Each structure stands twice: as structure tokens, then as C-alpha cells.
Amino acid sequence: MDSVDQREQEKLIMFISFPLSSIIILTNLLIIIGIACNKQLHDTPNYFFLSLLVADLCTGLALPFIPLMGLNRLLNFQSCLVVHIFPNFLFLSFLFNLVMVHYERYLCIVHPLHYSQFWVHRCFPAALLAVWIPPLLYASLPAFGWNNWNEILDTNTSHANVCDYNSREPGSRHNCSGNTNNEEDYCFYNKIFPKPFIYLEVYGLLLPAIFSILAMTGKVLWIARKQLRDICKLNRSVEHSRASEHEHSLNVRYTKCVAAVSLTFLVCWVPYIVYLHVSVMLFRGAGMRYSSLNIILSCTGIGSMAIIPIILSFANRQYTEPVRNLLMKIRTRCTRVQDLTNPT
Q1: Alpha-carbon 222 to chain mean position
Q2: Strand, helix or coil at 186?
Q3: Rounded distance, CA 15 to CA 311, Å?
Q4: Would you state the pLDDT for residue 287?
Q5: Which of 122, 132, 139 is nearest to 100 (CA)?
Q6: Which residues pair with 186 in a beta bridge?
Q7: CA angle centred on 301, ends 64 and 309, rounded to 5°
Q8: What angle do CA 109, 28, 308 make, to 5 degrees?
Q9: Of 40, 94, 210, 337, which one's alpha carbon is 20 to 30 angstroms from that of 56?
């Protein structure tokens, strides 16, 4: 890749990822402070959500570094491992936390009477470790030898030896390019992540996690619809009428909920699923070039995923109540200052 093109792509990454990263970090900090300041929210379900917010905050910090994995950089082996393993671990832990939050709420809705007996509620420390330790172990596998660094280095060395041998033959016209010089110092994701590692992560961890979240959400909506029908039947049997205002309001709320879930899927999940498939296609095709389109897809796909906890936070007024109170105080003071400076 030309150095000028790489600098342009680095500028594009910072231009797209920095505003998204700043919004994600600032919003998560405000919500975390709001939960910490409200003692009524200090229970197991909110601790899971607090862990998700911390993981989302870390994802916001790692967001500018994830698209940089597709660019070649002059780094040694240890530095190359860090810049690839650490962002991958943070994003995997974020996804595991998101699955755990949905699973905990799913159990609470599907089995409300037996919720306290499940391991998620009784063994909270073990459940918390389950969303942080496995991502760390899997992301660290390249550091324990599952990488292509030595294979690519051996290939480059043998290629250089063949070129040197052919150049010594009299009358040889074999021309070897100088692209192998110091190529062992170039850091890119093909050297750190082997193809089986990528396929296992995408099709064995990421996509099953996404589909499990969608399945649990669909199950909860189906249960809510069934309960809504029972309430409507009971209401009609009592009031002896076809429909009441209360029934109409319940149907409107359910329709809004379905619309919100569908919009969240289109805005947050679809861009990331598209980014996953484009990344796999890019990884398969050795001749494909890391273009500006891939950078835009990676930034928007991961950024849209990181917005999901923020959307879930806005659905609970208790999480945003301290922030709303602070904004109301600031607004009141600004109004008082404006009234004092402009008396009528």
C-alpha cells in the first residue's frame, strides 16, 4: 500500500471514528455515574448492565484502533500482538456482556417466579467472570502461538534465498523485487489472525451471539403479545364491549415497542452484520485491497453496535434521571442569568 494512500486512510479513520468514540465514551460515563449515584439501582440486574456499560466504554476507546488493523504498519511482533489482541478482546467482552444482559432479562420475563434460583442470580461473580475471562482467553490465542507471523517470515526468507540464488547464476535474467526487505517488521492482521481463527470468531462466536440476542428478543415480544391478548380478553369480558381506551393504549404501546426493536435491528445490527461479511470476503481474497469503503463499514458497523446499550439506557428513566436533573439545573441557572441580564 502506498504511504500517501495509507496516510489518507488514517485521516479518514480518525475523521469518522473520533466523533463516534467521543459520543460513546461521554454518554456511557454519564449513565455509569447515574447508576452509581442511585442506591436503588444497586442490585444484580443493574450490576450486569453496569458491566455492559463499562465494556461499551472500553469499546468506544478501542473504536479508532479497530479499522487500523487493516493497514500495514512498521511494528515488531510484541507491539503488533498488542494492537490486535487488545481491541479484539474489548469488543468480544462487550458482545458477551450484551448477551448476558439480554439473557438475564429473558430469564426474568420467561421465568419470573423461579428467577432467583437461576445461576445468573445466585452466582453473580461467576457470571461476571464468564463475560470477561473467555473473551480474554480467546483473544490471547495468537499470543500463545496461533498466528501466521513465523509462517509469513519463513515464506519471505525462502523467497529471498531463491532470488539471491538466481541472481548469482551467470546469464540469469530473473528479476526479484525488493518488497521482501524488512517485511517481517510490517504488522497487519493476516500475520496475527489465521483464517481458522477468523472463521471461528465470526461464525462460532459473533454471529451465534447476535442470533441468540435476536431470538431472546423475539421470544420476549411473543410473550408480551400473548399476555396482551389475555388482558384484552379479560377486559372485554368485564366491560362487555369490543374495545376500550385502555386496550387501545396497550396495543399502541406494543406497536411502539415492536417498531423500536425493528428500528434498532435495522440501525444497529444490520450495519455490523454487513461489515462482518465484507471483512470475511476481504480476508479470503488476498488480492482485495483495504479501501475507504471498508473503513466506513468498520467504523459505522462497530459504532452502531456500541449504541445499543445507550438505547437500552434511555428506555429506563432511572438510568438517565441524574443526568436529566443536572441538565434541568443548568437550564434553570441559565434562565436566571438571562433574566438578570435582560430585565423587563
Answers
A1: 26
A2: strand
A3: 24
A4: 46
A5: 132
A6: 74
A7: 90
A8: 45
A9: 40
> 150: part of which helix (H) or strand (E)?
helix 149-168
What radius of gyration, in Å, describes the C-alpha atoms of the chain? 26
CA distance linking residue 282 with residue 113, whole number of Å? 48
Give this prediction's pTM: 0.82
The Cα–Cα gap between 201 and 335 comes to 53
Phi, psi dihedral angles at 74 (to 5 degrees): -80, 95
Q: Which of 262, 292, 238, 318 is nearest to 41 (CA)?
A: 318
pLDDT for residue 241: 57
Burial of 113 (C-beta count, 10 Å sphere; 0-12/13-18/19+): exposed
Distance (Å, rounded) from C-alpha 42 to C-alpha 253?
A: 28
Q: How many CB atoms lie within 10 A of CB 93?
A: 24
Residue recorded with cell 406494543 = 254
Nearest to 261 by CA among 211, 214, 319, 310: 214
Q: How far apart are CA 320 and CA 335, in angstroms?
A: 22
Other C-beta atoms lying within 10 Å of the C-beta of residue 223: 13
Q: Give the pLDDT confidence of 46-84 residue by residue, as tens digits.
A: 889 999 999 999 999 998 888 888 777 788 888 888 989
